[in-house]
Structure formats: structure tokens, C-alpha cells
Amino acid sequence: MDDEYFYFKKLYLYICAESKNNYNNVFWKNISNDDINWIIFEGLFFGDELKHFLNKLKNLNHNQIEKLMGFIERGPQLNNNEDDISLQWKQRLYAALIHIPEFKQKHAYYLNKTKIDYVLTPAVLYNSSLFNEDGNTAISPLSDNELLIKSSSEIVKISKSLDKDKTPENNIYINGLLQSFRRFIIQYPEKYFEDLMPFLDAPISMISTIFLSFQDLNRSNKDFNIGMFNEFVKSYLDLHKWENELINYSPREYITPSFIFYEIYSSYRELMRNNSIKLNINSLNEIRNILLNIIQFRKYLKDEVLNLEDEDYLNITINSPIGNIIEAYIFCLRKLSEHLDKNDQVKWKVEDRILFNCLLKEEVIQIYSLLGFHINLFFWFDKKWSIDFLKKSNKLLAKDKKVLWKAFVNGYMWNGRVFIDLYELMHDNYVSLFDKPINDNGHSIKKFTHSFISRIFK
């Protein structure tokens, strides 16, 4: 019975609490036992099982009330009896006894001090899901039922109170709340996505959790209100001067607005890549406009093209911020085109053509790489525009734009297939590839040779 984690004692308490028999006499007979008393009132080992047992205590006489109140007021074994965690522990016990008037008054007193409605929740188990990245314990201050019942504004209020005073104890609770919050968004997306706006005022760690949960939902192919999520993103983007935030970006030690900026475009890129989630044209147009807004800050984004001796430009592109954003935009245009007549010769807007012309003129390496990789999509969007680009692509070498040419050809050769039917348009590029090989471990030349021979002998 003397197990390290009190499993048997917890099970015993829970069975007594749920039993039809009245075990009050057993409780009062043993509560003065030092070992039992210490475990219940001086440690922090019990949660939900203790709450159920205390809920059943009724018809207490004056002496019993005084004795029980004395045990609770003594508080857990901490260095300072007024520490936040001590106040919270007392409040949790009084919350379980709120059906008794004397304890209800005490609960109100501590609630007024903490400003958060703490209750006993399931006690901590040694489970990896209850620890954060640093190995610190994570305990949610809200039970699952409370998290489901409380409004978004109430959850934000609790998270702000915990985040305001960053004590080790509060860190345990905020980490626990964020873990539970992420899990509940995935389980009940309709509850939270219908009322996202209050979270604009939440601690940045909770805002980050919303985007992580959004990405979880994408992977699980669950339906949710994308319209409200789009409104939330637009409102968040309006809160900051991104020129300053992105210029001052540094590798994260703490979550910052610039880190949220990266999570926003990552969330949309993942959504746009997911063909299992169907979006209506209004939602897609909203996403397109959001991505357009993000793209305008491209010159402030961290440049990931650091080593031009490594000429596997597609790999560089898909691991860079601007590459991720542009690819998300390309996929968004693809989804929008699905709502158009497939016989339409042009399936993008004038603004889209202007944007890509602008990116090419600015010599953004990532767009050259993605244009090669997604050449089939660009033919689908606008065949004439694509043909005009291909006709001029090899001239980049004559203009001493070798890096841009290599980025385009490398991306093209990473496509699922090399388009031999575009041989006439790509002829000069094929010839140049043998004369000016790309330093991508021979991938481009091998890919072309294999595909071309396969075509000949087909």
C-alpha cells in the first residue's frame, strides 16, 4: 500500500466516494493519523478522487468543520504559506466543500484573491503528455468539463492571470492549460472557432497554440469554420507593424509576434496542400488576400539562400519563409481554379500575373525554383504567360543571371516528370544543362537523361 504515487490510496478514495455506502465515519476516524493527514492536506498529490470524496461529506458538526478548516488552512508544505500555489490548493479544497456554508465563504475569500476559479482536477500521472519540452510538469487549472463550458473570454482571462506572474507554479498551470486547450480545439473545433476573437487578447503562447491546433486539424482532415479563422488571422495581422517585427527577428528563445507570423503562413501552406479539405470560393478568396498581404512583407523576411555553392535550389526554397508563402499562394490559386470552367484559357486574376511578374523582376530565387517545379500548374493558370517565360528562360544565362537559371532548371528537374512535350520550348535549357551543370549532386542531369531516354524508347 505504500506505493510511490499513491495509486492504491487514490483508488480507495475514489471507490469510497462513488460507493452508495457512507464512509464518513472512516474518514473522521483516520483523518488525524499523521501519515494520512500529511498525504491529503500537506502534499499536492490528490485531485479528482479527493474532490469526489469531499463532495460527499455532509451534516458536519461544529468540531468537524473547525478541524477540517484547520487542516486546510495549514496549507501544503511550501516555503511560504502565502505562495500562489498554497492559495490555489486551499481554494481547490474549499471548492470541493462549497456545499457547506462555512467552506463556501472561505472559497469566496480565496477566489477573490486568486481571481481564478481553481478546482481539484485529476492528479498528475507520470505520463509524457503532462510534461513540456523542458521536462517541467504541466497541470491544467481547469478540468476538461470546465474547459468545455467556459467561454473564450473566460479562458483568456485565466490564461492572462497565470501569464502575468511567471512563477514556477504558474508556469506549470499555463503549460497544462495550453496542452488541454490544444487537445480540446482538436476535439471540439466548432466551440472555439466560432468564438476566436477574444483570443487576440490572450498571451502569445495561447495564440501560438491556436495555430498549432489549426495545423493538427489540417492533418486530421476535420471540418471547421475556416471563415472565423480567417477573420482572426486578419485581425491579428492588423495588430502589429510587421516591418519592425520581421527586421528584428532572431532565432526564437521565446514566442514573439514574428514567430506567429511564420506560424500563420505555415498553417495556410499546410491547408492548401491538403486536398481532402474542401473550401468554398469565398473562403479561398479570403485566404488568397491574406497570403497577398503576407507576401508584401517579403523583403523583411529572413533570407534563407545562404550558400550558393549548394545549388539544390528547390530544397533551399521549400525550407525558406518566402518559398513557403509563395507555394501556399500557388496552391491557393490551384484550388480557386477548380471552381472555374476547365476550358477557360486563363484561370488566374490580373493581380496574380502582376504579382508573379513582379517577383521575377525582383529576382526572387524561390519563385524561379517554384516556377520550374510547378510549371504544369502555371500552364494551367495561364498557358500563354508560361510559354512566354519558357521562351526567354535560357536567355537568363546571357544576362549573367546564372543563379536564377539554375534555380529554375533545378526546380523543373525535381518535378514528378520532365515534360518532353515541351522539348522545343526547353531545348536551349537542355543543351545548357550539359554545358553548365548544376551542383545538385548530379540530380538535374540524371533526371533529364533518364526521362528523355524513357521517352525515346517508350
Overview of this protein structure:
By secondary structure, this protein is mainly alpha-helical. It has 26 helices and no strands. Helix 1 packs parallel to helix 4 (48-55) and helix 24 crosses helix 26. The longest helix is centred in the middle third of the chain and has 20 residues, at 168-187.
What structural class do helix, strand and pairing data support?
Answer: mainly alpha
Largest sheet: none
Count of helix runs:
26
| Extended strand count | 0
Percentage of residues in helical conformation? 55-70%
Give the SSE order as H and E letters: HHHHHHHHHHHHHHHHHHHHHHHHHH
Key features?
single chain; 458 residues; mainly alpha; 0% strand
Short précis:
With 458 residues, the protein is mostly helical. It has helices at residues 7-18, 24-30, 34-42, 48-55, 62-74, 84-96, 101-114, 144-149, 152-164, 168-187, 189-193, 204-220, 226-237, 242-247, 257-273, 281-295, 313-318, 321-337, 350-361, 365-373, 375-381, 383-393, 395-398, 402-413, 423-435, 443-456.
Question: How does the SSE layout of this entry go?
Answer:
Elements: H1 7-18, H2 24-30, H3 34-42, H4 48-55, H5 62-74, H6 84-96, H7 101-114, H8 144-149, H9 152-164, H10 168-187, H11 189-193, H12 204-220, H13 226-237, H14 242-247, H15 257-273, H16 281-295, H17 313-318, H18 321-337, H19 350-361, H20 365-373, H21 375-381, H22 383-393, H23 395-398, H24 402-413, H25 423-435, H26 443-456
